[in-house]
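Hi R.,

As promised, here are both runs. First protein below:
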Amino acid sequence: MLSSTNSNEDASVFKISSDLALVQTLDFITPVVNDPFIYGQIAAANSLSDVFAMGGEVINALNIVGFDSCNLAPEILGEILQGGAYKVKECGGIIVGGHTIETQQMYYGLSVTGRVHPDKFWANNTTINGNVLILTKPLGSGILSTAIKADLLSMEQIKEAATIMAQLNFYALKALDGIKVYGATDVTGFGFLGHLSEMLNENISFEIYEKNVPIIASAKEFADMGIIPEGSYKNREFAKHFIDKEADILLFDAQTSGGLLLAVGEKDAMLVVKRLKEVGYESSAIVGSAVSKSEFGIFLR
């Protein structure tokens, strides 16, 4: 076992040989949009992301399904599975089976197997002093998912949110080719600051440039209206002990299929952002840096 079991890693990394390690993870979510095909895409992208957060590539995946076949048409399930298979294929993997159980609450996700070189996987807590933090996707999907359930979003806003959530983190690995990544995670259910706190170690604190953190514009509007998922408040309660002052609730927003949070060398940071934008992560931004260990783990600037 190469990955730590004590640092909330995104996936397990298990060494098979001198040049091969398996990356394994699973995740599933309830519907965040009404369109079953798009929901399948988003759920799959969310599940696959943990492999990419470890610097790995996808081999195959198994479907995990909870479905109410007594009250829902089988065509709905078919569209969900098609959406998932589409995303797995997009990153070079294949669906090899799965399991469905009868449930009133629908859910869908994947158990994913990937591969990585044993000496080249990314851990979440190995950032060093002087590293620069880069976030690849904007925050706000949790708030917008809540607004969708309340039927508050326009079709244009729904499309924007769905496009961001369905975007694979796969292409970020191409942008990082030849770049040393010191630490990485993906921003999902614990929110930006929650997952950032998992990147801390005994040698560093983080300075976050709060105004640089990309946020979906419509999410700001709904946050101001109080449309905030319960999980975001729980995230704030958990992470507040690491932070030097009160932070915007959007920095705690529980994300679905959020972006990668990457620690790279200062000399590579601008190049990485440029490459990320070129492969489709238009909101990519430098959001902070690692500094010497101090009183708090996270300082907002």
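And here is the second one, sequence first, then its structure tokens:
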Amino acid sequence: MSQVDFSQQSDSPLFKDLANKDIEYLSSVFTCSQVAEGKTVFIENMPGEALYLIGQGTVQISQMLAEVDEQELTTLGVGDIFGEMSVIDGESRLVTARITADATLYSLNRKNFTKLTSENPPLGQQLTLNIARIFSAKIRRAKKDYRTMLTASLPHRN
């Protein structure tokens, strides 16, 4: 299996507190793909099987509100990850991810994630902690956005 070059992603929160040897190990279990602008990485409700790290480009995350009404939630860029829930719980996707600028994506599938956590428990533990931190930050940001939306809809008091 060829090694992925993570030299441009060293600041990603996915690699927080990882030694160079650990990042090198991860480079052997991730795969790299080039994805053109306009392509869909995954669609809401489809089975989830991998997380993605953005090496280059941008990815729009959206969710269907009604049968024909799709709402953009955020746009992610270099160093961001998405799809992380699927390597943890294996459940269906909650959102849709589309490429908005030609992208390099590094993916880690659930099988390789499970394998690395059993073969290298300290690395697996740190990687899982980093994924949990990223996910926690996303939940906190969503809660803040939700609060802002709710307070904006309240009548203003004089």
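A quick note on the second one: The beta strands are 31-35, 40-42, 50-66, 69-76, 81-82, 96-109. Let me know what you think.

Best,
J.
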